[in-house]
Amino acid sequence: MSRKLRRRLIWIASIFVVSALAYVLGWSQIFRVTGISIDGLQPQATELISSQIKRESLIEIGKPLARVDGRVVKRALLKNQWIENVRVNRHWFSGEIHIFVDQMNAIARISSTNGFEYLTDQGVIAEFPEELTISVPTVSGNVQDKANAERAQELLGELSGALDSRLTITSMSIGSPTSFSTVATIGEQQLTIRWGSVSEIPLKIKVLQGLLALPENSKLRLVDLSAPLSPIVK
């Protein structure tokens, strides 16, 4: 057999193999979608994503695995403002599509013309579905201003885990870039904390903790920490 003929036969065989693989992967009954699993979300959010996949026919049970485009699924799900990232994996032997979804972490709720929006821990304002249960402080003031949103995110981030475990922040008010205040509860008691600007927050938290530890301050209603070395209590 001549070298030229041998090369031609190899070329024909290669085309046949590629065509056969394309058929097996894209059209035969061998590699089909048998199930869809969604991880990374709370149950209500998982149900919402599952409904969207069915509604938009992004993935169909019985469809060839090779014809499921993970990039298309990812783009569709990322249209939800509350979704941060999506990863789609196809498992060829089991036929399962595994979708891992990273949800934005809401740290505060903001009133808007459409109901509520949420400030995330990245300083981004996003819409979350009403079906999701999100227990976070409510923020009032000009949060739509990017700088104010970033300051609010910074303050809430500093307060998270740093405050006395008895304190629960329920709301925040932004009067100006140097006038931030929060309302917290201690049991059934309500405490207003004026932080002033969002500078020196670790020092202000330390001063607040010291004030709350004093027996004579057991019924405080207001703490002004605008000047942390000269706090005002009422």
Shape: elongated
Assign the CATH superfamily of the largest domain. Answer: Cell division protein FtsQ/DivIB
How many domains is the backbone divided into? 2
| Helix and strand sequence | HEHHEEEEEEHEEEHEE
Note the gap between the termini: 102 Å
CATH architecture of the largest domain: 3-Layer(aba) Sandwich
- Largest sheet data: 9 strands, mixed
> Based on the structure, what is the oligomeric state of the protein chains?
single chain
CATH fold category name of the largest domain: Rossmann fold
CATH class of the largest domain, please? Alpha Beta
How many β strands by DSSP?
12
Helix content: 25-40%
What gyration radius follows from the Cα positions, in whole Å? 28 Å
Strand order of the largest sheet: 6-5-4-7-8-9-10-11-12
Which stretches are poorly predicted, pLDDT < 50 over at least 5 residues?
16-28
What's the total helix number?
5
Mean pLDDT reading: 83
> Structural class of the secondary elements?
alpha/beta
Portion in strands: 25-35%
Can you give a write-up of this model?
By secondary structure, this protein is of the alpha/beta class. The chain folds into two domains: 31-103, Ubiquitin-like (UB roll) (Roll); 106-233, 3-Layer(aba) Sandwich (Rossmann fold). Helix content is 30%, strand content 31%. The chain has helices spanning 3-26, 43-55, 70-77, 146-159, 201-212; strands at residues 35-39, 83-91, 96-103, 106-112, 115-120, 125-126, 138-141, 167-176, 179-186, 189-196, 222-224, 232-233. A hairpin with a 2-residue loop joins β4 (106-112) and β5. The radius of gyration is 28 Å and the shape is elongated. Residues 16-28 have low confidence and may be disordered.
